[in-house]
Amino acid sequence: PKKVLIIGSGGLSIGQAGEFDYSGSQAIKALREENIQTVLINPNIATVQTSKGMADKVYFLPLVPEYVEQVIRSERPSGVLLTFGGQTGLN
C-alpha cells in the first residue's frame, strides 16, 4: 500500500489506552520506514502518536463513523489499521 489510515487511541484514561498510544506510534514509525504514507485520526492532542513528525497527516477528529468516513473519502487510503486504537478503534 502507498497510504494507510491509522485509527488512533483517542482519549487516554488511567490504566487504559497508554499501551495503544505506544504501539500506534511504533506502527507509524515502521510504516514510514517502509515509505508508506501515514494518515492518523486521533482526537487527543496529548499523545505520542500526534507528535510533530510522527504521522504524515493528522486529523484531530472524534473517533466516530461519520468523521472516519469523511477522512476515508478525502484521503482514499489503501488500507485502514484499527488494532492500534484499542477498543476505541475497534468500536
From TrEMBL:
BP terms from Gene Ontology: 'de novo' pyrimidine nucleobase biosynthetic process; citrulline biosynthetic process; glutamine metabolic process; UTP biosynthetic process
Pfam families named in the record: CPSase_L_D1
InterPro entries: CPSase_dom, CPSase_preATP-grasp, PreATP-grasp_dom_sf
Gene Ontology CC annotation, any one: cytosol
Catalysis performed (reactions): hydrogencarbonate + NH4(+) + 2 ATP = carbamoyl phosphate + 2 ADP + phosphate + 2 H(+)
Gene Ontology MF terms: aspartate carbamoyltransferase activity; ATP binding; carbamoyl-phosphate synthase (ammonia) activity; carbamoyl-phosphate synthase (glutamine-hydrolyzing) activity; dihydroorotase activity; metal ion binding
Alphabetic keyword roster: ATP-binding, Ligase, Metal-binding, Nucleotide-binding
Taxonomy, superkingdom: Eukaryota
Protein known as: Carbamoylphosphate synthetase
Residues annotated as domain Carbamoyl phosphate synthase preATP-grasp: 2-91
